[in-house]
Write a structure and sequence with these properties.
The complex is a heterodimer of chains A (414) and B (75).
Chain A lengths: L9 H9 L4 H14 L4 H18 L7 H13 L20 H9 L9 E5 L2 H5 L1 H11 L4 H4 E6 L4 E6 L1 H7 L6 H16 L3 E4 L2 E4 L6 H13 L10 E8 L6 E8 L3 H5 L10 E2 L2 H8 L1 H18 L7 H11 L20 H7 L2 H11 L8 H7 L34
Antiparallel strand pairs in A: 1-7, 1-8, 2-3, 3-5, 4-5, 6-7
Helix pairs in contact in A: 1-3, 2-3, 4-15, 5-14, 13-14, 14-15, 16-17, 16-18
Chain B lengths: L11 E4 L2 H11 L8 E3 L14 E7 L5 E9 L1
Parallel strand pairs in B: 2-4
Antiparallel strand pairs in B: 1-3, 3-4
The chains are: A alpha+beta (414), B alpha+beta (75).
Chain lengths: 414, 75
Amino acid sequence: MTETYAHVDDDVRAIVEDYNLPESLRHRIYETIEDRGGVDLEQADEIAHAVSSRYEDSRVEAHDPVGTVSAQSIGEPGTQMTMNTFHYAGVAEIDVTQGLPRLIELVDARKTPDTPMMTVHLEDEYAENRERAHEVVWQMEATKILALGDISTNVADMIVQVDLNEETLAERWPTVDDIDTVAQEIAETIEDALGVDTRRSETLIEFGPDQPSYRRLLQLVEELRDIVFKGLEDISRVVIRKEENEKTDGEEFVLYTEGSAFGDVLSIEGVDATRTTSNNIHEVYRNLGVEAARETIINETMETLREQGLDDVNIRHLMLVADIMTNRGEIESIGRHGISGSKDSVLARAAFEVTVNHLLDAAVHGEEDDLDGVIENVIVGKPVSIGTGDVDLRMGSIEADGGAADVELEPSDD
Amino acid sequence: MVDVSQHELVPEHTLIDEEEVESMLTQYDVKRAELPKIKRKDPALPDEAEVGDVVKIVRDSRTTDKAVSYRLVIE
């Protein structure tokens, strides 16, 4: 951001930049000066100085237990959250897990969320034209046989008949002109998937078991229902919505999917691979890396709290959680199998969950505990190493001339 | 293949040279191994990054406009 302000010249800038302030505060100062119609250098310095001292005051003190404060700050609103898992969210008619279960799912870093979903943005004409948007939908949504036609089982002749609906085929394969080609493709997919021979006339496909067997016949029908003819297996439903585009001030079509296949979707023609997101943090991690995963954790936790009207939780707490979860270059859960379970201290781990197992293992392996952390020291009843508890004081005598006594002060190593 | 770096969730990753690493480590008074990590195979990492390198990450921050962070490339 390098906006130019009419009333902010280089000298004022140099003064403000001299103070160690974050970008956003600097811009606020420039804006204020701008609103006032300019100030002289002395005033600028005064303003910057005042802002700077307020900023320094509000910063976290050294030895502040930020983790504990965050845990409390997220935990307390957590008690007010719904235990209700399902809710039709405002966005489209798609089920999403919300409230406490969702929050737990996020900090536990579950491999797949309960209700995976994606928000797919589209590019150019795909975003403006409903027909084109639908082309993308058909490439994503898993199309099964029931959507394409009717199945009937003829027990007497031991055959399964599939009567394809021409209109549906034309709609779902908009790029193929010839219905016959599509029907042939479907017949081949069935042959490959079920290992049977098919006969086809126009849009009617017939097949049966090699040996007459009632059981096998029913089994074929069951398997037929599960074949994905088009789209991505993981995406069971796609909803199109028209939304306002914040950047262009226009309207665009946005797709919401039930189920997630982030990597596959990003490379589909027409999908805007710069804005599309998934609520599955592991998929984001695999496709976009650890920084994007961190960002997604913050967004998702914030969104979960916001949905419940608990958005007065400061974002810094959620950022801390996301930082810790992605600190080692991959996503780790907070719980016993992740961060808390990999602490150095035996007592700290034992205090968290499954106490006896940890103590037993530690005893078997002859582990030692240096009592550096907070929990360990609470357990043994010693001052904890936070706040003033982390400062070592040494007494010396003051000599008559007012100078410090000749005592060797060793710097504390923590 | 999709260009990962263009995604709005992916901040800018740049490799920094040894000199900059040293001055950053002194500034924050940390050891190299204490930095947050990033995997060598991370999709957002520049191709030429090698294990032991440090990447500078400039995020669009919610609390300040731009936040600078560093990650050490690991196996």
